Amino acid sequence: MLYAPIDNDAHWSARYTRLAERVQEPPPELARPLYIADHCCGWATHAACDALSQLAGVQVQPDALRIGTGLPVGAELDALLARVAQTLREADCLRGWRNELMDVFAMDTRLGMIERAAMRPLGLLTRAVHLNAWTPDGELWVARRALSKSTDPGMWDTLVGGLASSQEDLEHALLRECAEEAGLSPDSLAARTPLRTVLRMHRRLPEGYQVEDILTSTCVLPAGTCPVNQDGEVMEIEQISVAEALRRIDEGDFTVEAALVILEDITRRHAHGEI
């Protein structure tokens, strides 16, 4: 496929719209609304409901899964959430075990924290931070996910992307991910934009329901910068033209999250005359 010069905002916007529509899926079949401490905050899979049906502090009802009814936010609720995650693990409802805690939110209210692997079986909100990095001459830095990744192995991604951990400031989460995934120091990121929300994604996955806020920051890395992965989660990093990025997006080589971030940034930068 040949790509015309970048001269039509509607061209990029239409691509973005098509992808955005793909990640607004209803909850999995037979999933129940999840209430934690009387706040509606997720969608529990049928398998998760079955696994938790005998756990103290949990009520499986025909129209809902309720955890910690009447409990205040605090240590007792967190301990119950830890037991929930362990019970799901023992029932083989989780994909792996990360030993990483993530915040549980209902709207903007933080309710507690739970093991990362339990987030999707319970349909809980996660927050992903991305860095969309450019070279001074207008090419994109992109990273290819390691084959060992449990989600989207071997696919192309933004240079940096990851989830914020429990009680972690989002800007700090991005700086941490930049160091881990690309070896970038804060000095090389001095010109980056503040994080902005691209969209909230709702996607059915084999292990449950992905409800995720996608946030991104844009940066032109200084000339001579050569990102190098530090944590083993990336198999290669390269710089590519906008046309090549669009070709890979159209062929499905990028994760859907990365494709959305890249298209949003191309559209924004073109509108501002930056590319």
Describe the structure in your own words.
The protein is α+β, with helices and mostly antiparallel strands and 275 residues long. It folds into two domains: 9-25 and 126-271, Nucleoside Triphosphate Pyrophosphohydrolase; 32-122, Transcription Regulator spoIIAA, CATH 3.30.750.160. 27% of the residues lie in helices and 31% in strands. It is built from six helices and 13 strands. Strands 7, 8, 9, 10, 11, 12 and 13 form a seven-stranded mixed β-sheet that branches. It has a four-stranded mixed β-sheet with strand order 2-1-4-3. A two-stranded antiparallel sheet has the order 5-6. Helix 1 runs antiparallel to helix 6 and helix 5 packs antiparallel against helix 6 (256-271). The protein is elongated, with a radius of gyration of 20 Å. The protein starts with 8 loop residues before the first helix and ends with a helix. The relative contact order is 0.17. Residues 1-7 have low confidence and may be disordered.
Spell out the key features of this protein.
single chain, 275 residues, 4-stranded mixed β-sheet, 6 helices, disordered N terminus
